[in-house]
Amino acid sequence: MKVIVAIDSFKGCLSSIEANQAATEGILAACSTAEVIQVPVSDGGEGWLESYQAAIGGELVTLTVHDPLMRLISSCYLIKENVAVIEMAKASGLTLVTEEERNPIYATSYGTGELISDAIGKGCREIIVGLGGSATSDCGKGMLRAIIDTYAKGGTWDDVKGKIESIRFLIAADVKNPLYGKKGAAYVFAPQKGATPEMVELLDLQARRFAEFSSRHYGYDYSQHEGAGAAGGLGYALMQYFGGECHSGIELLLDSVYFNRLMTDTTLIITGEGSTDSQTLMGKVPHGILQRGVHAKVSTALIAGRISDQQTLTNAGFSFVRCINPPNLPQNEAIKKNVAYANIRQTVSDIIRTLPQGK
Questions:
Q1: Distance between CA atoms of 319 and 180, rounded to whole angstroms?
Q2: Sign of the alpha-carbon dihedral angle for 254, 255, 257, 259
Q3: Distance between CA atoms of 140 and 118, rounded to whole angstroms?
Q4: Hey, is 98 helix, strand or coil?
Q5: Tell me, what's the pLDDT at 199?
Q6: What's the pLDDT score for residue 65?
Q7: How many DSSP H helices and E strands does the chain contain?
Q8: In angstroms, rounded to a whole number, what is the distance separating the alpha carbons of residues 186 and 172?
Q9: How far is the CA of 285 from the CAs of 24, 46, 138, 275, 344, in angstroms?
Q10: Taking the CA of residue 324 as centre, how many other CA atoms within 13 Å lie in the half-sphere pointing to its CB?
Q11: Contact 155, 115 (CB under 8 A)
Q12: Which end of the chain is flanked by fewer CB atoms within 10 Å, N or C?
């Protein structure tokens, strides 16, 4: 038996690496001779850096940058040869501010720009930026300002364009929202970052005006492209000003580990996330993995701490859809790390035991 384990993080509870290890123990408890391949995964948000390092290796570069409220913090990014991998949440993430401090009117992506600037200065020719978990809704203007401050010393973006023209930027995002409008960055994502309805309207107006200015200046407009609204509009800035290519984060990661090759002679793929419903089928990690499994005709199991729309998920092609938690387990107990770990282990072990002998 050969099993691939590729489970997303259970946010605030278990990392992808920890969830994979729990599942591996469950597999081996049910079939001690099984071959298990662990693939840490992320869609560009939490765990992106750790997943990519597990996939390609490389060294972490640590540096001091500004957080969303312009306070100095220690952050990092990954370098492998001339490729840099950046998780924007490490500098501009929602977890870096308290709930009381959340305010996307003031929050800035400046720190992400500092990470990018450092990677450019170290000679990286390809920069992969994972978008997700941002505290910001500044359309990437803070990020642009940080690069200008580094390379133009008070000049304009036109003064630094030459620095980035030969660099390939890849954007990893799991959302397809445009920059502005009712489905844009402000209306859809800013409320969870602390925005009031009045703030949402102001942020949307600012995004629209920034896009109009940028379009007049360059003669093209990426504001309505899929992913432009990711990370408070950082996706837009990377496309409009860097020529960035927007991709599904999970697709980029699976390609980097040659996932299609790994599936050769595989019996089962096990994926999962903390909470799953029909939204999972809109480009999230488990859906990206399911698509690979369906194409290779390999069964895929889905586990989660909470499950809605189970029949929809089954109809989509998952061979197993299992909640790891017993029906009456309180939420505050279920999210404890040791409890979730044990429940993943047991659920996966039960799934393996249902497979026919020799499968």
A1: 38
A2: positive
A3: 17
A4: coil
A5: 98
A6: 98
A7: 15, 11
A8: 20
A9: 19, 12, 26, 12, 17
A10: 35
A11: no
A12: C
Residue with tokens 């107990």: 333
Three-class DSSP category at 272: strand
Question: Which stretches of the chain score pLDDT less than 70?
Answer: 357-359
Contacts of residue 111, defined as CB under 8 A and 6 or more positions apart, other chains included, come to 65, 66, 67, 68, 73, 75, 91, 92, 142, 146
| The model's pTM | 0.89
**What burial class does residue 123 get, using C-beta atoms within 10 Å of its C-beta: 0-12 exposed, 13-18 middle, 19+ buried?**
exposed
Would you state the structure tokens that stand for residue 318, as one six-digit string? Answer: 């998952």
Contact assessment for residue 112 and residue 88, using Cβ atoms and an 8 Å cutoff:
yes
Residue 184, H or E segment? none
Identify the pLDDT of residue 359: 46
| Element of type H or E holding 336 | none
Q: Quote the tokens at residue 132.
A: 């997700």
Q: pLDDT, tens digit, for every residue of 114-157?
A: 999 999 999 999 999 999 899 999 999 999 999 999 999 878 88
- The token pair at 281 is 């089928």
Q: In this structure, what token pair is assigned to residue 287?
A: 């859906």
Q: Any idea which residue has 């930026």 for tokens?
A: 129
- 107: tokens are 């929050």
Which position has the token pair 């009117």? 105
